[in-house]
Write a structure and sequence with these properties.
mainly alpha; 12 helices; 2 strands; 64% helix
């Protein structure tokens, strides 16, 4: 379901139907949380307690984020991470609760899927994502897609990763010149990009951010042998 906004949900959906949606969201969240709780022991209760304090519309959004991440992990075939960072999971729960924009929810689910599999997602990446608007992300991907290939290689970023993520969010490359835009100012202030040789280029943090929120790559079954 493409959510129309927290303020509009109550108006658009009849009470009985809305109750079922919330009940389904809570059940979905608990099902996705179950394997997380198994690996984190009693700490999983902190995540559930944080979820229980959310408003009903927020619960629907968070459950959608967790369910989407779970589906991505299942489709990828990548092994699950046995040691999760509960603080990061809590951060995802808190930040994704207010994300109405489907593109930003997509990035949060990608980040969560990364933690559920590879693990070691740095909390600063979640902090940065929590401060970005969808316009910031679009401009960031435009800069990433127009960055010099040698710079991407130096940062360890695969060109196909940039293209895949940008295509998934419907980002088209648009060259912008003249005054620095608000999006460029914020991206530079957050340390994701820098002005170099008359063009914006990714910085190390930008490369790490991009790789963290990129879709999971399906694992080659033969690699397990």
């Amino acid at each position: 379901m493409d959510l129309m906004g927290i303020g509009e949900l109550g108006k658009a959906i009849p009470p009985a139907a809305w109750k079922r949606i919330v009940e389904t969201a809570c059940s979905t969240f608990e099902n996705v949380l179950a394997p997380i709780t198994e690996t984190t022991g009693g700490l999983g209760r902190f995540i559930k307690a944080r979820f229980d304090r959310l408003t009903e519309p927020e619960k629907v959004v968070v459950a959608n984020t967790f369910a989407t991440a779970h589906e991505k992990v299942e489709r990828s075939g990548v092994r699950r991470n046995p040691s999760l960072d509960v603080a990061l999971i809590l951060k995802v729960t808190e930040c994704s609760a207010s994300q109405i924009d489907p593109n930003l929810r997509e990035l949060w689910s990608n980040l969560l899927a990364r933690e559920l599999t590879e693990g070691s997602v740095h909390p600063e990446i979640a902090n940065v994502l929590g401060r970005l608007t969808v316009e910031d992300v679009v401009r960031f991907l435009e800069i990433a897609r127009t960055s010099k290939e040698e710079n991407l290689k130096r940062l360890g970023v695969a060109v196909r990763t940039v293209i895949k993520l940008g295509s998934g969010l419907g980002v088209m490359v648009q060259m912008k010149r003249g005054r620095m835009t608000q999006q460029e100012f914020m991206l530079e202030r957050l340390g994701l990009i820098e002005w170099e040789n008359a063009a914006f280029e990714l910085r190390n943090l930008g490369a790490l951010f991009l790789q963290t929120v990129a879709p999971l790559v399906r694992e080659n079954p033969q690699a397990r042998n």
